[in-house]
Automatic annotation (TrEMBL), chains A, B:
Protein name per the record: Shikimate 5-dehydrogenase
Domain of life: Archaea
Record domain Shikimate dehydrogenase substrate binding N-terminal: where: 5-86
Molecular function GO labels: shikimate 3-dehydrogenase (NADP+) activity
Listed SUPFAM superfamilies: Aminoacid dehydrogenase-like, N-terminal domain, NAD(P)-binding Rossmann-fold domains
CDD domains registered for this protein in UniProt: NAD_bind_Shikimate_DH
GO biological process: one example: shikimate metabolic process
Length: 275, 275
């Protein structure tokens, strides 16, 4: 059976390497392909692909558009309006979202708590929306500010979805200092990427949480170290989401030892390739 | 049936848009997918993919590696040692190369002749090797210099393949002026790419031939205009190669009117997207 990733670009994702390694260790014939889809062909692909395609991860820019081609939605997808995993069920696809599980893993494994903290979130896309939802349902931050390049557009999109006293949508020109900074933009996937926040935003001992996972340390993370604080990349989140994806695709957990070996090999291959 | 492109990165190719448009106009169920393959999964993909996959274009960095997974080779593939199209035939894949047909179209359609000219070629990869072969079998240039970042490595690779009195392998530091400059590197696929040659290399009224096709005019092409000469991009070559690919996949010509409409739509969509 075929599984894969739909998006554009898809070349930075580690999913292809991880899942093919899992399938290899499981000694089955499954394949995972990273498919780069241009906007004019998404429709054809979703309508014409044959039943050997059983499920896909979905990435930028199709996390919302994909819902036009799905029959059913997981409750979290209804809430977020975005899906990052689809699975063939019956005559159509069902849409899921694994961001919540991934974010929960990242916060709990690293002991991050944001009660009473000043939180800044960069980006307002799909994963940022689940981040906001996760924080508001688990913590009471002092302030939560969401930074985007177009605050007006973001305000219209997010308004009415969440109500929180100290939540504001701001532009990167509104400089203020924060305790916890979270990068929900794709900046950091490529080696030379800038940080969404300048060093000015980092209060002393700031915690930086980067949802990108390609590099050990991004510029965004480096600034936290320079503030005397700490930084966490998105790898725990990535692997937790992959476990969830596996569970959705195969309605079963991936065998612990296999997942652990595949995780190790993926980390090794991908970090060697990037260094 | 499934067709596609294998490589990394694949996001800049126009093939996916062109072929899906052709299939749409032909009203069949074929799909063309651009699959981004990492080096550790090429083997699995070639061994495990099911028979619904009938053929692929192959791009950087697998034009040589793909030959490990093919049973038969077209004569041009034997000569060049690289393949850019594979097709399922019998129990395995047969390797083809459409570069010669594409280069021939580019030269003849634009009336380019290089007899007695001083020719500089940037790059020594798969397409460069077919370019050298095409020029040597059709013209007698005054000099033909091949520029690479590692002339020593290129010398070892190309030595013995072609003999030509005035052919030299040089580094970009060896500055000299040329009448005809040909870009066989991927520089020019991305908007901010530099030119492989500095303006110094362009003699007065130089002709620049760029095998990249994504932009109307690349920096490499601009320098030719500044020399008072002319510049040609790789679009004629791209579409000619697509016709050849179609012929290989379906053992038949694509209907003239359909190809022409698909070509026009692809140009329109892709240039709109890039501008």
């Amino acid at each position: 059976m075929m599984y894969g990733l739909l998006g554009s670009p898809v070349g930075k994702s580690w999913s292809e390497v991880l899942f093919n390694r899992i399938f290899e260790l499981e000694e089955n014939n499954n394949i995972y392909t990273a498919i780069n889809v241009s906007p004019v062909t998404l429709k054809r692909l979703m309508e014409k692909m044959d039943v050997s395609f059983q499920g896909f991860n979905v990435t930028i820019p199709y996390k919302e558009d994909i819902l036009r081609y799905t029959e059913n939605r997981d409750p979290l997808v209804w809430k977020a309006g975005v899906s990052n995993v689809i699975k063939r069920e019956g005559n159509g696809f069902t849409a899921f979202n694994t961001d919540y599980a991934g974010i929960e893993e990242l916060f709990t494994k690293n002991g991050v708590r944001v009660d009473g903290k000043r939180v800044a979130i960069a980006g307002a896309g799909g994963v940022a929306r689940i981040m906001i939802y996760y924080i508001l349902t688990n913590f009471s931050p002092d302030t939560m500010h969401i930074f985007t390049r177009n605050p007006e557009i973001t305000r219209k999109k997010i308004k009415g979805t969440w109500q929180y006293g100290n939540m504001k949508i701001r532009s990167y020109d509104d400089m203020e200092k924060y305790d916890v900074l979270i990068n929900c933009t794709p900046l950091g996937m490529n080696e030379d990427d800038q940080s969404p926040f300048s060093p000015y935003f980092y209060d002393e001992k700031a915690t930086a949480i980067d949802l990108t996972y390609q590099y050990d340390e991004t510029k965004f993370m480096k600034y936290a170290a320079e503030s005397g604080g700490r930084a966490i990349n998105g790898r725990d989140m990535f692997f937790r989401q992959a476990e969830e994806t596996y569970r959705i695709f195969f309605m079963d957990e991936c065998e612990r030892e296999i997942f652990s070996r595949a995780r190790g090999d993926t980390l090794k291959w991908m970090t060697e390739r990037l260094s």
